[in-house]
Structure formats: structure tokens, C-alpha cells
Model the fold of this input.
Amino acid sequence: MIVLKKYICIFFIVFVLVLVPVSARAGGGHSSGGSRGGSTRRHYGHATSASPISTIVAVVSGIGISVFSMTKIIKKRIESKKALDEASAYDLFWVEDELIEKVKDSYFAIQNAWTHQDLTTLSYYLTQDLYEKWKSKITFQQLRNEKNVLENIQLLNKSIIEVHDDLDNTKDYFWVMIKGKMKDSIEQNGEVISVDYESFKEYWKFVRYGNRILLDEVLQEDEMDLIG
Done:
């Protein structure tokens, strides 16, 4: 009886996961939130009319949040630039231009591998922990006969905003602010069921692996406070 209950629970979990739409875009999705490699697509309801005052308050509040966020990013950028200059003086791994090139290579390789559900390539660019999470997401995509097709992939901006240089090189890591844009489509059974095309901002954490870098975590734009 206990064994039967166990299998029923496993079946229920798999059934729910198969029904729920799987992540969109490698690293993110159609909306922000604590996704770690995938986020939930937007759900739209009926719009309600807003008063002019509430609209103005919302706009001013949004501008205030954006200014505050940008101020924090600029501060982090200045601090990371100083840290990179100091670290690269004795460790060439931290030469900023070379790190940015590695980030650029990883970004395009990861997005393309996600589109083609190419686990071999993903295993080369991701840490083991993140690889296992994304492997599960791709497995559920396949169970639903889905593919997340990314096209016209652009990398509009990339800036290192956090640096951790440890005496133990295996504990080195850094965060990059990524701004990108792409055509982000979900296909099921060969038919397009959703399309998104807009710019996005995310924070990608890379860890050092010898002279290479591996993507370890992805945060959405509203999760900057979790960087550390």
C-alpha cells in the first residue's frame, strides 16, 4: 500500500509538471520572477480603467525605481572595475576584456543550445547544478512536444557588476548584467503557440573553472538584491 501511494505521488508530480508550461528563453522568460533558468509566462486578464492620478503615481514610482536601480548598478560597476584592475595585476584570468569575450561566447552558445535542446553543449557551459536543472526543464519540454525557439539573438549590453576573487581560485566568481533581445517563440507539435520579441535585462553569475567560465545562476531584473 505504501509503495502504491509512492508511485501515485510520483505520477501526480510528473503529470502536473507536464501540464505546466516550461520555461521560456535560456536563463529567463516572458516575465520576471525567481526563476533560476526559466520563468512563468505572463497571464493577462481584463484591464480596469485607472484614474489620471493613479496613473501619474504609477509612472513616477516606476521612474523612481528605475533611477534607484540604475544608481545601484553604477555603484556596483565602479566597485567591480576597481576589483578587476587589482586582481588582473597578478592574475590574468581577471583581465576584463577577455572575460567579456568569454561572456559573449557563452551567451550565444547557451541560447542556441537551449533552442536545439542540445544538452551536450549546455553541459560544457553550465555548472553541474544548473545543468541538472535545465536538463529537467528540457526533458519536460520534450514530454510536451515543445521547443523554445530563440531567433535573432542579440546581446545589447554586458557589464561586470560584482567580482569575488578568492585565494582559492576554485571559489572565484563574478556577476554580469546582461541586456539582450531576441524573438522568443514556443512551439508545440510543430506549431507556434506563443511569440515574444522584446528586450530584457538579467544578471548572470559565472564561476571560474580553470581559465574557463561556467554559468551558475541567472537572476531576473527585479532580483538584483540577491546578487552576492
User: Anything to note?
Assistant: Helices lie at 2-19, 52-88, 96-115, 119-125, 128-143. Strands lie at 146-164, 173-188, 191-209, 212-220.
